[in-house]
Design brief:
The longest helix has 24 residues, at about 15-40. This protein has helices spanning about 15-40, 55-75, 80-100, 110-115, 120-130, 140-155. The chain has a domain at about 55-155. With about 160 residues, the protein is an all-alpha fold. Helix 3 (about 80-100) runs antiparallel to helix 5 (about 120-130), helix 3 (about 80-100) runs parallel beside helix 6 (about 140-155) and helix 5 (about 120-130) runs antiparallel to helix 6.
């Protein structure tokens, strides 16, 4: 068995290999960051599989007519002050439900605030005294109806 005494040095690696390794690590970190950003919850609580109305102007017109009808019923004496405030509150809440998909019909004022619905929140807060006092409160139904109309008109 002849012994070969020549020394063979290891072959040097190209400088591109470490650069490709670093690039691969950066690419993996970017993919993880993208997945994290794409799947984190939004600022407001959304409704899964909710499809907004195709004709929001039609929905607005329907609720403006409903609010006008409630005010006319109250003015004609067919609807008590307390009942008018309750109906206006329900109309606003149902309108918001149709526009967002959130089940706002039975939400408290605090829950409306948590869902960041400022227009609805302000209107419902105005309805509360007339809705929950024994006499219907001092708030005029015409003022409450105007607040409800503002919610519908200013909704985006």
């Amino acid at each position: 068995m002849p012994a070969d005494t020549t020394f063979y040095a290891p072959i040097g690696y190209s400088a591109w290999w470490p650069l490709m390794g670093v690039a691969l690590l950066i690419l993996c970190a970017a993919a993880v960051a993208w997945i994290w950003v794409a799947t984190k919850p939004a600022g407001t609580i959304g409704v899964p599989n909710f499809v907004p109305p195709r004709h929001p102007q039609g929905v607005k017109a329907k609720y403006l007519a409903l609010i006008d009808g409630l005010q006319n019923q109250h003015d004609a004496g067919h609807l008590a002050t307390r009942a008018a405030h309750s109906e206006l509150s329900l109309a606003v809440r149902t309108f918001v439900h149709e526009m967002t998909g959130l089940r706002t019909q039975r939400m408290t004022l605090t829950e409306l605030r948590e869902h960041r619905l400022p227009l609805a929140e302000e209107a419902v807060e105005l309805f509360y005294p007339g809705e929950f006092s024994r006499t219907g409160g001092d708030r005029l139904v015409s003022d409450s109806a105007q607040a409800a109309r503002n919610v519908v008109r200013e909704w985006r």
